[in-house]
Fold Phosphodiester glycosidase domain-containing protein.
Amino acid sequence: MSARLALLALAAAWQAQAVTPADRPLFDGVTYRQERRGDPAADPMVIHIVTLDLTRPGLRLGVTPPDRSRGMEYVAHTVRDALIANHAQVAVNASYFLPFFGGSPKGDDYYPHAGEPVSVSGAAMGGGRVASPVEIDQDLRVSAILCIGRRTDIRAGQRCPAGTRDAIAAGPHLLQGGQPVPLHRALIAEGGKGPRTAFGLSTDRRRAWILVVDGRQKGYSMGADNGTLVALFRELGASDAMSFDGGGSSTLAVAEATGPVVLNRPIHTGVPGRERPVANELLVFAAPLSATKK
């Protein structure tokens, strides 16, 4: 077989593997699928997509409430533990936070550990309580805010309308009105491939998507950059989208009958599968599927 035919055969085989799998229903109005894209040998990418039907009466979004018991805005915990503590059906990491130290490879010298105090960068609300104020100059990545109240919306900046009960300021802001949002020039060089967590909304605000892309794991998934996230959200039908904290924080957990399950493969201190303690989460509350069959 010629080299050209061999390449065409490899491309055809990969295209066959990259057929979009069917969504798996998790809860009423909540579905999940995992996709594998890219060159499986050189640049694989594993994507986790949670689709939310915001019109379902039993489905609502929330944010982890603040916890100032240790003297800061939150007490660090894993996404899995937040899912349990808040009786949610889906949880995904949300805000950037400080203090933070990534730790040495495979080590335990990272910060924060579970139970240690942290504060988030930018505005945040959880359970109707303000966790963090507007902080314009703390982190250039924080350029958009998810506002949850009478209406779920993504806005530029860090301010939400009256009636907002939960909010997450993070970024970069990816899409606004269907158009890519230009990156701040200081962030362009930092926008390489890595683990990502992001959230998008349809134009009519009836549908939402949580995206988690695994990364920094050779042979499994190298991750995504901001341009890839924009393309993915456009493909899904989103008009507005924003990133949350990524890297070793990217974790997606769901409640199953046997207990909480992490659907993606996070990487913390270079260890695949190791969960990083974070500050807060976007929470999804939904009715079980059995409730829709009555």
In short: The first strand starts at residue 24 and ends at 27. The chain has one domain: 37-292. Residues 9 and 265 are 30 Å apart (CA to CA).
